[in-house]
Structures are given as C-alpha cells and as structure tokens.
User: Fold these one by one.
Assistant:
Number 1:
Amino acid sequence: ESKGYEHWAKINNLKEAAKTLNYLTENNLLQYADLEKKVEDIHSSYARTGEDLKRIEARLRQVQPLIKNISNYQRLKPVYDAYMKAKDKPAFRAKHEAELVIFEAAKSTLLAMQGDQKLPSLKALQAEQQRLTEEQQGLYDERARLKKEMKQIDTIKANVDMLLRIDEDQEQRQERSSQRE
C-alpha cells in the first residue's frame, strides 16, 4: 500500500513541478527576484482593489439616501405647497398625512445631510450611482480574478521554494560526503 502511495506522490510531485516550470517560462519568470516581484505585484493589486471598493461603497452609501430623499422631496413638494395654502390645514393634513410625513422626513434628512448647500441634481446623482455601481462590479470581477491569480502564484512560489530547498539539501549532503572522503 505505501508503495502505491509513494508512486502516486512521485507522479503528483512531478506534475506540480511541470506546472510550476510551465508557469515560470510562460510568464518569463526566470529569476527568483522576478518571481518575488510578481508575487508582490499581484498581492498589492489585490489590496488596491480592496481599497478602491471601500471608497466606492462609501460614496454609494452617501449617494443612495440622497437620491431617495431628493426624489421623495420633489415628488411630494406640490402636496406640501398645497397644504401651506390650504384654508383648513387640519382637514388637509388628515387627508394627506402619509405624504406630508414622508415629505417632512425627506426635508429634515436633506437638511441634516446637506445643510444650507444647494441640493445636487437628481439626474446627476442617478448617473453617478450608475457609474459607481458599474465601477464596483468591475472591481468585484477584478478582485475575483486577482484572488485566483494570487492563489496560483503563491502555490508556484511555494513549489519553487520547496524545489530550491531540496536542491540545497542535496548539495549539503554531497558536500558532507565529499568532506568525509
């Protein structure tokens, strides 16, 4: 049974070594320093996409409530204006209570978010949200690709490190045996 495993392990190790050598030659990583640089580049690209995603998601968290509240404010402003002109305010309010509550909530939220600043255009915010969402999806895709590439390059580097250690061990054994002679 252990002979079978030994045979499988040797074949598996040879396959891994072949994959590693193919990757190294296909990517022109013929110096160890080049391999280390590639590992570092992929890891830093992965980290950068994470930072970019955080920035975009933070902006989306600002834009989305603005869109919702500006939309409610604009949609219900005519109801509020009619209320302000109404002769019988309590009766008007009773009839339009839900709309007025939503309008007033939107108005106070926008005031808290924007202060006295002019409200941004709803169309511009929606365009920004669309752009940010597309950018976010692109970054998710890029990040998934980089994660896969990172796993691959880390395995390649571990294989190279293991092969180099095996070579060093063999050299040290040869040195010791030649010293004994």
Number 2:
Amino acid sequence: MLRMHNLSKVYRTHLIETHALRGFDIHVAKGEFVAVTGPSGSGKTTFLNIAGLLEEFTGGDYLLDGVNVKGMDDDARSKLRNKKLGFIFQGFNLIPDLNLFDNVDVPLRYRGFNAAERKRRIEEALGRVGLSSRVRHYPAELSGGQQQRVAIARALAGEPKLLLADEPTGNLDSQMARGVMELLEEINEQGTTILMVTHDPE
C-alpha cells in the first residue's frame, strides 16, 4: 500500500542543512493500522506530509499503492492524493459557517462528483461515524469528539485507500479519545488502511 525506501528530507537555508529524515524505510501493507510514534522534533510530521503528498522528499523512493511518486508534478500529486488518501487532523479543520453535511461535501465538490453521488457518500460517511441525526448541525453545536467524527466522515466520504491521521486524539479528553480510537479501529477492520502519527504511547 505504502512503501518508502532510503527516504531522506533535507531542509536547506543559505547557512544550515537540517536532516528531518535520513535513510528512512517503511512498508505499510493493505489493511494494516500502523502508529508512528516518537518525541517532538523526530520527523513525524515531515514523514506524514511526505506520505500525504503535501511535501516533496530529497532522496530515496516512495510508492503509494504501486505508483512511484518521485518527480511527479503538483497536478499529478494532487490527483493521486484526492483519489487515494484521506486526512484527519488534530485540529479537526472544519468550516464553522457550514453544517455537517456541507463540511463533508467540500472535498467531494472539489473532486467533481455529481449531487446524487455526493449525497450518497455524505449520508453513508456520517452514518458510519454515528452522526446521521446531526447533518444540519454546525461544528460549534458539537463536542470535540463529535467534531473529530465529522472530520473522519469527511475523510471517509472520499473512499480513500489510505487514511492518514495526525494526532487525531490530541485535542480530546481521554473518554472522547477512546471513542475516536474505537471508531478508527472499526474503520480499519472494514478494510481501510490507517497510518497514524502520535506522541501518545497509549
């Protein structure tokens, strides 16, 4: 599903070189749930940004679902990202002025699905995260755990092959965090590959 070999990422200024990743190898098989842990500054976010095709790497190889992304232009990377990946962020990244239905709809519109297909995907995704009855609510009317469920629904609506989660429980109390983790485990059991970055050993 995802394979990186001898990957490196160097940030350069005119004075200094910073090696964020050096000789990095990882293989995530289809259907796995992998947690990447490590202290702050260890390169987790850089790795996730590269995995999500949001950032380019300096050296090595990266294959995403059999496609070599090395040297791809922005347009090709964007198309591959939209087709294969879903993202869940620590800060939810919901649009406060839009209700739940419209928040989940935003990336689907960008991908050009027709209205009927978008509606099907939105209702199915919100149903999977247990929020079918809240489609007309706004983010401010929900708890943190519910907002994170909306963010997960938004990612699922695109039917991604790989779900990338960046500290998905970082802003939640322990009970809400447990609920979100149980939901991610359920999604994984249904066949979606998940790659999660966290500093939390639990």
Number 3:
Amino acid sequence: MTIPIWRQRLRAAQKREGAAAQARWVQLATVSKNGSPRVRTLVFRGWVDEAQLELFSDARSHKFSELNHQPEAEICWLFAKAKQQFRLRGVIEILGPRSDSKACLQAWNNLTPRGRAVWTWPQPGSPFIGTDSMAINVDDNHPIPDHFRILRFAIGRVELLDLKGDFHQRLLWTQSNQIWTEERLNP
C-alpha cells in the first residue's frame, strides 16, 4: 500500500499535535434534503486504507437521512499546533450491525466502556429527559445497539492550507485511476 503524500503530511501534523484529544476531532459537513448545509464534530477512529478513514455515529441522528440523500461529504480537520487545515472530500459508506456485523463488532469492542455508553443514551436531538437513563460506562458484554454505525469515508480530493510562515501555502490533491496528482493553489 502506497501512502499518498497528503497522508504523509497529515500524519506529520497529527504527530505534532501529540496526544491532545482535539487532534482526533474532525468536522463533517453534509447537505440536508432541502439543500441547507449541516456540520458537526465527530471523532476520527482510524484508517481503513490509504485514502479511507473511519468515524462512528448513531443512526438515529439527523445526519443519516442527509447521507442517504447525498453520500458526498467534506471533512475539515484543523491541527492547531501544526498550523495546518486539511479539507477532505469524498463519499461515505454506512456500515451497521446488520450489513457488516464483523466490522461493527470489532469497532464496538475497541471502544472503551465510557465510549460505548454514548450509544445507550436516548435518541440524539430529542427533548432532554434527564440523566437517569444515561449510563456512564457500558461493560464488554453489552450487545451492539442496532443504531451503531461505522462511516467509511472514501477520499477523492484533499486540500491542505498550511498557515506557517509569512506566505501561506495551499495544495490540492485529486485522485484519478488510483493516482494522486498535486497542484499548488493561491492561499
């Protein structure tokens, strides 16, 4: 597997951020059925291959009707210490316990007990009913909720805005026939 140059640059930015939690936070932009933009923060979970990353989400949230309507999306990933912003554009494939039980079970088991607890909470965006029904930790034996989803984001376009120095640098990588080409843009 050949790692594209943009991934090498992204990896260097990640290393510069260290263990800071916010270095794993990405902003996912989608389009609603009525054409209005939506953006939310998710946690980067890892790479599936050289140009496909994973996120986890709750199928009861609004983003799923948006992704079913329009699976193309964009991620903005800011690395504050590195002074670099990556904009990743691509298509999201949704995996659930019924469509890919093996991948979902592995992902579920890799979550911490605290991380699994989020999927036992009431439906996201519904009226708040109190914390009595919200677990803090969920043990290893808890079954995968039916609404647990893996979002696999296949990247086809990457922009890097490097904010270091007097003159910012902006690079664009696009993929065609498994080949990435690089172009420098005005910042």
Number 4:
Amino acid sequence: MNIKIYIDFDGVILDTWEIIFNKYQKRYNTNKINEKNIKKLMLELGWESILKDSREINNSLEKIKQLNKNQNVCVLSKVNSKEEEQAKRKYL
C-alpha cells in the first residue's frame, strides 16, 4: 500500500508565525489580529525574508528527507499570495 504523508509548512516545518506576529505586535501595538493588517504586513516583509528569519522546528527538514526515502511525503500550506507560494516552493 502506497501511503502519502501530508505535513503542514507553517508551525510544523518552520516557525513563520513567530516572525510575523512579533513584527505585527511591534507595528500595531496589539495582540488582536486584524486579517487585513496581517496580510499587508506579510507582503511588506516579503516571504523570502520571513522564511530566512524563521527558525526550523525540531530539525524538521532532515526528518522529512529521511521519511521521504520510504514514504511519499507532501507539504501542505495555506498561501495568501503568489509570492508566498513561490518563496515556499523555492525554500523546499
């Protein structure tokens, strides 16, 4: 049986939220998320920069490489822009 394993990107592979939320808090001086403002901030920061500054979670990339030797591993991610999609594809 060929099993596919799906792994989420944000918060599983990289902690992108830490970078985004910290910058959001500094900019808007609040913990309350406004979706329009968070999307605007993500575009301003740029996804290549967000990915570069985000910390890898639990050596996830190496674990995915090892898992991919015997399983079909796919990465899932919600994307808010074409730039985000391209940056994540390039990163992986």
